[in-house]
Amino acid sequence: MVKRVFGFLNRVLWHGFYHRMGTMNRNFFFTVLLLSAVQLSAQRVVSFDELSVRLKTESDTLYLVNFWATWCAPCVAELPYFEALHEKYRDRPFKVLLVSLDYKSQVAKRVSPFIQANHIQSEVVVLSEKDPNRWLPKVSEEWTGAIPATLVFDKSRRVFLEQSFESLRDLELVLQPFLAP
Question: Is the pLDDT of residue 39 over 50?
């Protein structure tokens, strides 16, 4: 996908189209290009070692981490709730991280198009690990490997839930003990 974007850019610049654009059109063109690059980088493929650093904090930030996949219907059904919380708590020390368990080979074919089609604004990473037995217990000893699964944590508390959320309210109830003063 990145090669296609930059290939297109090269053709546009090579044929002089860029020079015939007005200033406003050039600004629009590069804004779209920049947003495309940001969206593409949002689906970064990571190892568990890279992810594990993100599963701990010493700051006051509250983290909501969801393990999901595009082929998991309950996962897809609850993603709007995570997006709603991402927007609702945007001005607080709060982060949503969506960890896709889709295969690395599916990033361009399924994950990126899914993220774009559903206008997902939360950070998305794709976990590329072949042996779940190595990393599942490091997320939670309780995790059987079923998805969706959610981890909520801050510097003093940690809650793991291997379940789907039927409503935004259900997910907010999990956050309440962390948000209370």
Answer: no
